[in-house]
């Protein structure tokens, strides 16, 4: 079984399917399987990976069975639900003739290939009822016919493309390195002259001149090194900015559902990957190039002294290099594991810092700390495996290298004894060998750095290969499309709309939604928690695309409208609205480089935050923390309302926009908004009767379906679903 490590924290299921697919001869990409398995931030379900397997041509059968049934009837390889929170592949099991017990071979995408005895296997797979969950896969004819998406290969040429804009600086580096190489080349000849012409002839003046030349050459090398480091810092910084900026440009263009399956740690680790790319481009690639040039020059100089030394040196150097290259494959897999553990570590730290209030309130400190310590133990385990691998590689390399030096020294000493070369030549050869060893070490470092850079680019390119929201040919809404016109029925129409989060076999969150939201009117959507209200709003905002059915804005299909253009025409307050780190005015006027003071003041007045702002020491210039740290929930909601009002949009979507407000503020803002809502299409999600009762139409959702629709008076008189939702508030009102 060929191990395929998971790329992100939640990729274990897709990685298992990729392994079994490769076992049967089809190497599907993990990112492709991830996309068809409906992966979410909390992981992938057995249903999700089963559907992904079926899409690539497997027939699947999920079962809960005991260990005996698995041993006798189970077809391998199969996917197992492991430790109740993970997926692994069982690819082999053998019965020990003496003990009568099985030995199990597991491919764990987060750890590697492992072998377990029966007790260990049972403790990780079986649940309380002594049964475990397994997914069996059998390839069909369709599996062998299905075409595999080719993985984009990141080669050396592609990486060097980042250096193209800096040709002048690279040329300067080239000159500096070339000068350094020439200086280095002179040293062995000076050493030979020092012994043969200075020491043996007992001429102190010659010794003095040669040593003085060495001092000046050394000073020149230092100056070149200083200038080279400055240039490399300049190039490296620019490349860093380019790579990360391209990454941010891309992720900001991706649809919301891409972020549903990613954790903060995954993004942070990808951003940190740029350091390895920058090091390879600015340090390893150029330095290795000139190390090879130096090696070639010294190789021919050594050939000039003695061909026997060259043959011995070349054979053993080749053996040392091949020894080191052999370990790169194992090192690649360990790099994925280190990436995952570091991602988990960052996610854990981020959660502790951001959730500190709830942690303290609920005495969660010890649990979260121990959880972090568990991650550290796993990270230590991966680092230990990497250290063992590096030490074993280095030990073999150094042994072969030392053997080579001893052999070369013996041959050179033998030649001096036989009178074939002088003592000065022997010392020059020793110097040359020392200089040639450095490029060989540099070459090994280059291979490792190239591997690191390619792995980092592969992880970054996984994001770059994602399909963007904005596509060519999408509709840009004109003023005519948006402007309210009397006598013309315009608005948003939903036809037979369905939505589900986890694929065709998952439950529907929205089912058979038929709804007309008239232009210039207010539509309120109500329903119990979990009825699908927020999901419906996210579909209207193009965060998600409906599984079935369609949504039209006037005569235009919503799926054909530019998402950016559509949202520019929408003022939105979501339940989880975000306050940015910055000034209050910049949190309200988010989309403009130049703030319109008149619109800003109108937004502040409408949201009734004048008094709050006037009481602050720096008024609108007052800075507030990320996520609204330092302000109350009600103040945060009023800033979000002001933000949507400032946009002066044609469409307004409010999801529990006033839920954190007190009754007095809510009443004032509600009255202010009525004038602002005039001739605008408004969709409001709310539980409070005061927010929805004046709507032109009220839509009642229950279990993802529309069960009632009408005005407040009509629905109260019906005494059905709407009445049951608001009756407690009606009693309070009376």
Q: Could you walk me through the main structural features you see in this protein, from its secondary elements to its overall organization?
A:
- It is a single chain.
- This protein is α+β, with helices and mostly antiparallel strands.
- 57% of the residues lie in helices and 14% in strands.
- It is built from 28 helices and 18 strands.
- It has a six-stranded antiparallel β-sheet with strand order 1-6-2-3-4-5, sandwiched between helices. Strands 12-15-16-9-17-18 form a six-stranded mixed β-sheet, sandwiched between helices.
- Strand 4 (102-108) and strand 5 form a beta hairpin.
- Helix 12 (274-305) runs antiparallel to helix 17.
- The longest helix has 53 residues, at 365-417.
- It is globular and about 120 Å long.
- The termini are far apart.
List the helices and strands and how they pair.
Layout: H1 12-23, H2 30-36, H3 46-55, E1 58-65, H4 67-73, E2 78-82, E3 86-95, E4 102-108, E5 112-117, H5 118-125, E6 132-139, H6 141-145, H7 156-160, H8 167-199, H9 204-251, H10 256-259, H11 264-272, H12 274-305, H13 307-326, H14 328-354, H15 356-361, H16 365-417, H17 423-464, H18 479-482, E7 491-499, E8 510-518, E9 522-527, H19 533-540, E10 548-553, E11 556-557, H20 563-568, E12 570-573, E13 582-583, H21 584-588, H22 597-606, H23 610-614, E14 623-624, H24 633-646, E15 651-655, H25 663-676, E16 681-685, H26 689-692, E17 697-702, E18 705-710, H27 712-718, H28 721-733
Parallel strand pairs: 9-16, 9-17, 12-15, 15-16
Antiparallel strand pairs: 1-6, 2-3, 2-6, 3-4, 4-5, 7-8, 7-10, 10-11, 13-14, 17-18
Helix pairs in contact: 1-2, 8-9, 8-12, 8-17, 9-12, 11-14, 12-13, 12-17, 13-16, 13-17, 14-16, 14-17, 16-17, 22-24
């Amino acid at each position: 079984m060929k191990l395929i490590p998971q790329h992100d924290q939640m990729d274990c299921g897709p990685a298992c399917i990729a392994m079994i697919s490769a076992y049967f001869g089809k190497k599907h990409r993990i990112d492709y399987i991830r996309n068809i398995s409906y992966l979410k931030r909390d992981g992938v379900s057995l249903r999700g990976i089963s559907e992904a397997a079926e899409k690539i041509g497997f027939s699947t059968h999920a079962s809960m069975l005991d260990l005996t049934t698995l041993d006798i009837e189970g077809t391998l390889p199969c996917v197992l639900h492991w430790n109740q929170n993970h997926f692994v592949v069982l690819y082999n099991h053998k019965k020990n003739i003496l003990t009568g017990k099985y030995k199990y071979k597991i491919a764990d995408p987060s750890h590697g290939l492992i072998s377990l005895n029966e007790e260990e296997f049972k403790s990780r797979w079986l649940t309380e009822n002594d049964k475990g969950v397994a997914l069996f896969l059998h390839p069909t004819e369709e599996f062998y016919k299905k075409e595999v998406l080719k993985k984009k290969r990141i080669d050396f040429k592609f990486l060097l493309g980042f250096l193209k804009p800096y040709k002048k600086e690279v040329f300067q580096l080239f000159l500096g390195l070339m000068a350094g190489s020439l200086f280095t080349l002179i040293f062995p000849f000076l050493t030979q002259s020092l012994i043969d012409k200075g020491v043996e002839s007992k001429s102190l003046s010659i010794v003095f001149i040669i040593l003085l030349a060495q001092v000046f050459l050394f000073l020149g090398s230092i100056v070149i090194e200083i200038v080279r480091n400055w240039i490399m810092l300049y190039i490296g910084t620019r490349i860093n900015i380019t790579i990360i900026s391209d990454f941010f440009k891309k992720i900001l263009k991706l649809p919301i559902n891409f972020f549903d399956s990613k954790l903060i740690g995954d993004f942070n680790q990808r951003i940190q990957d740029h350091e390895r790319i920058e090091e390879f481009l600015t340090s390893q690639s150029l330095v290795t190039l000139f190390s090879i040039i130096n090696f070639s020059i010294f190789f021919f100089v050594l050939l000039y002294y003695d061909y026997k030394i060259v043959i011995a040196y070349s054979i053993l150097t080749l053996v040392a290099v091949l020894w080191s290259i052999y370990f790169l494959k194992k090192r690649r897999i360990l790099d994925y594991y280190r990436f995952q553990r570091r991602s988990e570590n960052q996610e854990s730290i981020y959660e502790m810092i951001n959730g500190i209030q709830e942690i303290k309130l609920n005495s969660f400190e010890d649990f979260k700390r121990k959880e972090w310590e568990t991650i550290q133990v796993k990270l230590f385990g991966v680092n230990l495996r990497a250290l063992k691998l590096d030490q074993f590689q280095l030990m073999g390399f150094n042994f072969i290298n030392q053997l080579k030096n001893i052999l070369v020294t013996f041959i050179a000493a033998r030649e001096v004894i036989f009178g074939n070369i002088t003592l000065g030549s022997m010392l020059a050869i020793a110097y040359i060998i020392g200089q040639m060893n450095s490029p060989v070490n540099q070459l090994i470092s280059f291979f490792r750095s190239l591997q690191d850079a390619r792995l980092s680019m592969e992880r970054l390119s996984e994001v770059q290969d994602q399909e963007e929201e904005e596509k060519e040919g999408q509709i840009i809404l004109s003023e005519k499309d948006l402007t309210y016109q009397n006598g013309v029925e315009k608005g948003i129409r939903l036809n037979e709309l369905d939505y589900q989060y986890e694929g065709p076999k998952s439950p529907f969150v929205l089912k058979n939604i038929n709804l007309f939201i008239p232009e210039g009117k207010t539509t309120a959507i109500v329903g119990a928690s979990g009825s699908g209200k927020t999901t419906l709003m996210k579909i209207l905002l193009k965060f998600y695309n409906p599984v079935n059915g369609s949504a039209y804005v006037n005569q235009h299909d919503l799926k054909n409208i530019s998402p950016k253009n559509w949202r520019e025409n929408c003022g939105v307050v979501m339940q989880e609205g975000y306050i940015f780190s910055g000034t209050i005015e910049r949190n309200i006027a988010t989309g403009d480089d130049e703030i319109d003071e008149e619109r800003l003041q109108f937004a502040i007045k409408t949201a009734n935050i004048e008094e709050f702002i006037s009481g602050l020491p720096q008024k609108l210039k007052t800075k507030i923390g990320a996520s609204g740290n330092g302000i109350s929930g009600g103040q945060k909601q009023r800033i979000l309302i002001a933000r949507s009002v400032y946009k002066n949009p044609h469409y307004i979507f409010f999801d529990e926009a006033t839920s954190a407000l007190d009754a007095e503020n809510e009443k004032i803002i509600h009255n202010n908004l009525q004038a602002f809502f005039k001739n605008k299409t408004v969709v409001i999600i709310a539980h409070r009767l005061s927010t929805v009762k004046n709507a032109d139409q009220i839509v009642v959702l229950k279990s993802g379906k529309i069960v009632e629709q009408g005005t407040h008076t009509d629905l109260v008189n019906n005494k059905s679903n709407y009445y049951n939702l608001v009756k407690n508030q009606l009693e309070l009102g009376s």
